[in-house]
Amino acid sequence: MQPTVESERLSTRGRRALGVMAAAVVVIVAASIVYMHPTLTSRPAPKTGPINAIDHFISSAAQHQMFSGTILIAQNGKILLDKGYGWADQGKRMPNQPGTRFRIGSITKQFTAMAILLLQEQGRLHVQDPICEYISGCPATWKTITIQHLLTHTSGIPDYATTFPRQQAASPAQLVAAFESKPLDFAPGAKFSYSNSGYAILGSIVEKLAGESYSQFLQQEIFDVLNLSNTGYDQNFPPLRQHATGYRQPWVKADYVDMSVPYAAGALYSTVDDLFRWDQALVNRKFASGESVQQMFTAQVTACDGQGTICAASDCDAQRINCYSYGYGWFLGQFSVGGSYVRVNWHPGGIQGFVSVNLYYPDQEITLIVLSNLESFNWTLITQDVQTAFIQQLVEAFLVPSPA
Fold first, then answer.
1. How far is it, in rounded angstroms, from Cα 297 to Cα 360?
2. Which of the listed residues 215, 257, 288, 393 has the most CB atoms within 10 Å of its CB?
3. d(Cα 14, Cα 317) in Å, to the nearest integer?
């Protein structure tokens, strides 16, 4: 989700990006100034020239207050760039570091989806179960909605992030109550429409079946197991030395958000290093069952016109533009690079003061993770400044493009 509010309020730019989710990540990648636009093959190991050039360019952008955050680039499991830029807190003159924590917004959905898959592995639910089996007083209009619909944004349940007061503390039950009486936007399964409401319900299902809070379940079943010591459910006022301050623009602090509101749709914090460890555990099948991970990265639903119309995943091979799939907590699609296309798995995130993206090129084994605490940097100016010659330098240095 490319909002400026996950389960909160969507910014204008974020809402526009939601219209075409494949474009959303391109926006953030451009904003991150990390032009791993190149379709790169993973072997042999890349030269260091492009990484130095990227580092120099991002440093310059940070000096001009066009970017602030941390960036990690890796290929074939080897970290090539892992660095902080700009200020974690400008007033305290605290610079961003690779270990700086950021709110990750909708990247949270990857962990919520995995929580559901772990419960499925334990035999406590199945993704095809009707959600009313787990919700007391379930609305009649929700009777045909399944967990699968929630995971894939095809339930038709309206998105609470656009209307719920973001500064007001709320329990999971209160979040669900805010939209349970509203009519569905469409019949379940008829359309793809990005909705934080579905993931709020998933969080409440986790709590019901686990007998503990959503944050406790994630901590015990995921974070502790993978040693993600810098990932967790964020506080309203996190410790400054560890956590970046979110800015709406340089250096105007972002609006307050009570972190009970984004909940299972967008309330986590993390670092680039922890997210890389998470990605590697999934890519190398070192966590959960192979079947669960495969389900995450399988196209569960595909939309081909930028308006949420559902079609076959194979239709994207011909169309590609405005065409993307969604697995469980991951977008799946193809990006155009120098006349050819590369497969990409990604999820963007946005919450007041923070923008993020977790992106992986499976064929080239390239990881790009960007966490920023500057909400409104001007990505269009950056893309205009970086011309084809710079991108071509990266392509050549990283060797051959992958076939279309």
1. 11
2. 257
3. 26
Domains of the chain, start order? 12-397 (3.40.710.10)
Pair 46, 80: CB distance under 8 Å: yes
Tokens representing 235 are 């506080």
SS3 call for 337: strand
How far apart are alpha carbons 355 and 373 in whole angstroms?
7
What is the C-alpha to C-alpha distance for residues 203 and 214, in angstroms, rounded to an integer?
Answer: 6
Nearest to 360 by CA among 330, 382, 383: 330
Q: How far apart are CA 35 and CA 29, in angstroms?
A: 7
Structure tokens belonging to residue 234: 């964020």
- Residues 279, 179: Cα–Cα separation, whole Å: 33
Instruction: Indicate the pTM of the whole model.
Output: 0.86
Q: How many CB atoms lie within 10 A of CB 68?
A: 25
Low-confidence winner among 2-11, 252-261, 302-311, 349-358 (lowest mean pLDDT): 2-11
Query: Please, where are the H alpha helices in 285-357?
Result: 290-296, 315-319
Residue-wise DSSP of 120-181? HHTTS--TTSBGGGS-TT--GGGTT-BHHHHHTT-S----GGGTS-TTS---HHHHHHTTTT
Q: Please report how many Cα atoms fall inside a 13 Å half-sphere around the Cα of residue 388, on the Cβ side.
A: 3
Nearest to 22 by CA among 341, 314, 274: 341
Q: Radius of gyration (Cα) for the chain, nearest Å?
A: 20
Specify whether the CB–CB gap between 192 and 308 falls below 8 A: yes
> How many CA within 13 A on the CB side of residue 131?
31
- φ/ψ bin of 65: left (φ > 0), alpha (ψ from -120 to 50), beta (otherwise): left
β strands within 196-338, DSSP E = 232-233, 247-249, 252-253, 268-270, 301-303, 310-311, 324-326, 331-337
Nearest to 6 by CA among 375, 380, 379, 378: 375
- The torsion of the CA quartet 392, 397, 400, 404, rounded to 10 degrees, works out to -40
